[in-house]
Amino acid sequence: MRPMLPMIRGELGLSYTEVGVLTSAFAITGGIAQLPAGFLADRFGARLMVVLGVAGVAVTGLLIGVSHTYIMLIVLLVAAALLGGGYHPASATAIAAVVPAETRGRALGMHLIGGSSAFWVVPLVATPIAALWTWRGAYLALSVPTLILGIVLYILIGRQTQLQKNVPQMVSNDGKKGTDKIEWSKLVPFLALSVATGTMLQSVSGYLSLYAVDKLGVSQSVAALLMAVTPALGIFAAPFGGYLSDRFGGVPVMIIVSFVTVPLIYLLGVISTVPAFIAVMVAQGLASNARMPTSESYIIGNIPEKRRSTILGLYFFAGAEISGLATPFVGKLIDSRGFEDTFTITAAVAGVITIACTIFIWFNSQRSAAR
């Protein structure tokens, strides 16, 4: 949806705040859907939730293509989020069930190539379609192959269910065998750091296409294409981030990524040229795509197998909800104070949270080492 925001805003006459509400409607609902979806995936298996996520989003995408009002668009985005909410916790758990623990990060990174590719392939494909048939035509054209993909996945996953019965022994990122007990003192600060980094970045990323149009003076079509830069980096950044997680552990990789993200958020609000904008988005893409497999691998490695989807659902819920709640607030700040002040404030908040979580993780590691 983000690449199409300038076109949607122009047709419906939306303010930055209304754009924020539009994007957060999807994010907040998608976050809420993660909780029951993660539990259902643990209870009934990944097949149902994965297929429901893909096919459900395709059907609602078709309906979005024929919507004509702001309210209808919000309702359909909420429906898409509800149907698609189960994909992430279910898919990550399914991958963890069939790969060795020592290569889990790389496997999750490879999986994220598909997700990140969609974010840069879609703008490249949707933009020329939208130029011919408006943003509604883009939704209609892309929803049909997505629906077909959902049907194919249903068949393929059904043939692979036996593989998920051969679950390897759980091994945490530090190489120790897992138990049925969750070490919340290790997990909570890591979750807080990962969620804070992701949500602060996401809350400003939702406005980057509008920033490109309003501040850098590019056309709506060019702005949509620029949104492909960051996710395109996922092709190699996600597997590489997973490799670093496997090699050095999730905690040090996450801390580095979080500290790098803070100045990137600030720079996004002060750059004034398209080449500088692209350079920062490249750096942002490297950091954000490395964060995702690192987070998923660490979480899975420190959770009992039977509770993986449930805890991952909680993790995705927290990220989506905080981002969804923050996005309209960021839009309100942009309306009143402009991009530079808003992005500076967001970077400062991200920096404070990163420092606090890092200190807590360090003290916790020192206490564990002393035992």
Notable features of this structure?
single chain; 371 residues; mainly alpha; Growth Hormone, Chain: A; 14 helices
Describe the 3D structure.
This protein has 371 residues and is mainly alpha-helical. The chain has a single domain (2-160, 171-370), classed as Growth Hormone, Chain: A. Helices cover 81% and strands 0% of the residues. The chain has 14 helices and no strands. α3 packs across α6 (104-159), α6 (104-159) packs across α13 and α8 (208-214) packs antiparallel against α9 (220-226). Mean pLDDT is 82; it is low at 162-179.
What is the CATH T-level topology?
Growth Hormone, Chain: A
Rg, nearest Å: 20 Å
List segments where confidence is low: pLDDT < 50 over at least 5 consecutive residues.
162-179
Helix content: over 70%
CATH architecture label = Up-down Bundle
Q: What is the 3D shape?
A: globular
The total of helices stands at: 14
Question: What is the helix/strand order?
Answer: HHHHHHHHHHHHHH
CATH class: Mainly Alpha
**Main pleated-sheet profile:** none
Q: Strand share of the residues? A: under 5%
**Amino- and carboxy-terminal Cα gap:** 50 Å
What is the average of the pLDDT values? 82
Given helix and strand content, the structural type is mainly alpha
Concise synopsis of the structure shown:
With 371 residues, the chain is mainly alpha-helical. The protein has helices spanning 5-12, 16-44, 46-64, 70-84, 87-96, 104-159, 184-205, 208-214, 220-226, 229-232, 234-248, 250-268, 274-301, 308-370.
